[in-house]
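Two records follow; treat each independently.
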Amino acid sequence: MASTHPASASPIDDATGYADGPPRAALHQALATLLNARDRARPTEMMLALSQVARGYRALDAVAQAERYLDQALRWSALIGAADAEVRLLCELVDVCYDLAVAAQGDDPPASRAALERMRDHAFAAAARAGHVSDPNWEIKVLLRVSDALNRCGDHEDASNLQARAMKLMQRDAAPTPWHAEATPAVQERTQDA
């Protein structure tokens, strides 16, 4: 019985149907990397390989396949517990789902609405996890990125709330530090006694 797992497909079979060129070659290489990673089944390698395949499909405008691989990469990232990787994948899923929604808008309105709902779910998940990333400046960028996506799909209120959250973070980071907060404990003690 043949496996239906995307990683089990041979790289040549899975990359056929696309025009020859650098994007197809990159996809072919990504699929080969995925096959090697699958043999070891290490979460970090699987997450990276799956996201590389997703980017390869996205470069070929095969956004449905890109979403499928990003979803799998997101599941592997949960095993790692790395918020940065999870947030990056969620942001990529936001973009991919938006592209799917736009592509289906005229031909298949229910599919478009479903893609927008998935996009919103990913956007809210990214916003919720953004506070756990290692770089506080990146948290701001994530909030602004997902608020822009929400705004594009008509969810203006939630977009404004995320923008306000990002603005608060920017103001907090830009607030000057009182001179006595940077002083050594001995200096602080002398200023308090005075």
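The next record belongs to a different protein.
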Amino acid sequence: MRVLRGMLGTGLTFAVGVGGFSALVGIVLLIARMVSLVEILQMAGRLTVISFILGVVFSGVLALSAGGRSFGKLSLGFVTALGAGGGLIYWLLIGFAKGFRAWTLSVALANLSLLLAMGSGAAAATFLLARRAGKSLRAGDEVESLGEGSLEATLAERERERASQR
């Protein structure tokens, strides 16, 4: 169950990161009057959905390729290379679907560069975010859900509980 939660979390992180990045690029293009608002929404929507799927697949491939190494032993370069590989696979899927017939060489190279950067960037950001979150959790800690009440009260309760366990 933890692996499935991790895979879904990675997918969501990829989706939010890539969707947000594509929306920001779209806003710049909208200001430059190169695209319409509808085109931005379509692009961001497509990239968000595919990024979620790729993030889930990436997480599964990472788990399989880690070879039993703990999360702390994985390198940023390894994870980034896997993300770039995901971008390459997505570029190939688009290319074989119809892209290679429609793209000029410069458009194909631009798409490849963009997808490699987005794949490796999403992987690196997710990895660094997970490492940072890992520092605040101890082994065996379960992620708590927030119930009713204020965040400050919940944090204070957690600190009292950790102090009593020491």
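Discussion point: The two ends are 29 Å apart (CA to CA). How would you locate this feature using only the token line?
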